[in-house]
């Protein structure tokens, strides 16, 4: 399998990603997360996690996907995820399935450290092997 290719973040995009992460509402976990999604059009969509007292929060990746979908776009080219520290902050299981819904085999998911330096990158197959997707359902 070939390694996925991705374009490094510009300084402006890196700063926007750090800013959206720092805007996260995470009073319970104290684990702010930001996501920056680049759609097929080249437009960028940002999201941050938003927690609630009932523990049914919104993940950063879900927020970015929602922003993309609200603009009528349906394909993720690259998704960057940033947590607060030096360790991997990979998408949760629910978000892996959400990303899968809008991913192609060429989609790249890049996990950054708290300063915005890439730690690891994945294809959708690497992130969610043998996944279930729209093609597994009968036609509508």
Structural commentary:
The protein has 140 residues and is α+β, with helices and mostly antiparallel strands. The protein has a single domain, classed as Cytidine Deaminase, domain 2, CATH 3.40.140.10. It is 26% helix and 21% strand. It has helices at 11-22, 60-70, 93-102, 124-127, and strands at residues 34-39, 44-48, 76-82, 108-112, 118-123. The protein has a five-stranded mixed sheet with strand order 2-1-3-4-5. A hairpin with a 4-residue loop joins strand 1 and strand 2. The longest helix is centred in the first third of the chain and has 12 residues, at 11-22. It is globular and about 40 Å long.
Mean pLDDT: 94
Number of domains: 1
Encode the helix/strand succession as letters.
Answer: HEEHEHEEH
DSSP, total strands = 5
Low-confidence stretches: none
Distance between termini? 33 Å
CATH arch. level architecture? 3-Layer(aba) Sandwich
Question: Might you state the CATH topology name?
Answer: Cytidine Deaminase, domain 2
Radius of gyration: 14 Å
Broad shape: globular
Biggest sheet features: 5 strands, mixed
Individual helix count: 4
- What structural category characterises the helix and strand content? alpha+beta
The share of residues in helices is 25-40%
CATH class: Alpha Beta
CATH superfamily, by name, is Cytidine Deaminase, domain 2
* Spatial strand order of the main sheet: 2-1-3-4-5
Strand content: 15-25%
EC number: 3.5.4.5
GO molecular function: cytidine deaminase activity; identical protein binding; zinc ion binding
Organism: Chromohalobacter marismortui
Pfam families: dCMP_cyt_deam_1
